[in-house]
Amino acid sequence: MKFMLIRRADAATENGVMPSQEMLAAMADYNERMMQAGVLVSGNGLHPTSDGCLIQFNNGTPTILPGPLAPASERIAGYSVLETPSLDVALEWAQQWPTLDADGNVLLELRRYFTLEEFEPGTGLDKHHDHARVSDAMNVYVAFPGTCREAMQFYADVLGGHIECLLTYAETPAAEHAPPSLHDRIIHASLNLRGRRLMGADMAPEQHMPPHGVQIQLEYQEIEQASLTFTRLAEGGEVIMPFEPTFWSAGFGMATDRFGVQWMINVSADSCLSTEGETP
Fold this sequence. Notes:
- This protein is α+β, with helices and mostly antiparallel strands.
- The protein has six helices and 14 strands.
- It has helices at residues 11-14, 21-36, 87-94, 123-131, 148-159, 223-234; strands at residues 2-8, 40-45, 53-58, 61-66, 76-83, 108-112, 140-144, 162-168, 186-193, 196-202, 216-220, 238-244, 252-256, 262-267.
- The strands form four sheets. The protein has a four-stranded antiparallel sheet with strand order 2-5-1-6.
- A hairpin with a 2-residue loop joins strand 3 and strand 4 (61-66).
- The longest helix is centred in the N-terminal third of the chain and has 16 residues, at 21-36.
- The protein starts with a strand and ends in a 13-residue tail after the last strand.
């Protein structure tokens, strides 16, 4: 089940009062616990309603009502999207909201998302089911010649994710069919990066082939973080294309790391240049 945990606005958030470093740290710790539990899907804080507006429709005609919007208690200051097996589990996490926030005086609202199964069948719903053909996630799986554990620990350190699985051959029924030399190697590893996963496994060195023609692409908003990530991934490896400005990005680089995995590091661009769909 997916839930939205809404942090209602108050006088402080509506006046643009920024959180202290202690509050930021407490919220980061809270989010980290939820990420490690596989609960947190996303979350964001919102600017005051003075920076926003309402769009009101009357008989199909929109009218823009600029902020600030009152009363504050009916507005939203931020939200987190949680995925849990039940309402009770979502409530358990909601009750762990950092008490540093507004000295423990906040109003939270927990709302469950609809699922497609809850709507009446029909042609309108069929369109939404068509959208469901797009998978919920697309992950990357990399084969290693016995260095999977070291690689995943390195990636966790560089990329800031957390390792949620490091399973050896010996810990699975596959041990009966694998040579003893593989028993302490990794049959499945998973590094969680905000719900996206870099997965991997070891295979016998004589069967392993380095990835060719495939790169893992990472995108950042901040050029400093993108540059730092590129530098660390390239250490002990090979720079294919130095990290520098390009015609499509403020920063882009390509490198093969010391484990033989190729990376593309990119700073987000405002748009993608394309002629698709244009008419002469």
